[in-house]
Prior knowledge:
Helices cover 47% and strands 5% of the residues. The protein contains 7 helices and 4 strands. Strands 1-2-3-4 form a 4-stranded antiparallel beta sheet.
Amino acid sequence: MESSSVAAAPPRVAELARATVEYVRRAIGLELTYDSDTLPLLDHYLRSVPAEQPATVELVATTSGAYFGEVVRRLLGGRWDTSSDDVTEWRMVLPTGVHFSPAGFAAAAIVRADLDDLDTTIDAPPRMRPFVEQTLARMSDVTEDDYYSLCGRLDTLEHVHEVLVAVAAKMMGKERGEEPGDGVTGEDEPEPDGQGDDREDDDGGDGDAGPAPLN
Length: 215
């Protein structure tokens, strides 16, 4: 998805993201360009942040999270949920309903661990949550550094997003009475036990569902 086709970020998000671009430029002399190609530069920068300084971690996680959320939004689409007064609780909501805390991901990339006070999970509306759980379970094991890196998180989000796009297309096909295989292969689509066609629809766009422990 081209960045030119994506609506502007909320002003505060844009401001924080620009701060990250400046921090990285000053630290390593290279420019972040809001794409996956330069995301390794941000991971390199985050590895230099002192993990034993909570105030520094929170500050850098806030700005870097805004930047990472913008990379994801420009690549996959979606919207910011900035309804919380706490910047670390802002979320990125993808078109499939998958949502996550960019600041939480950035903080985890700094300390290379999950945190008790920040959300580092991938969540989804209840109807899609079983598909997310099984998709994550099927993914190959990676090293700890890759798992917590923002590059690794982006790879995971892309894969989960692609699977849920296929799931949504299949659900829509069933509602129209189409036969399996009519435009959706389903080869990589998980089939959670007990997932029936008569389950109550959930609103996948508001990101209001509480986080589930999905890593």
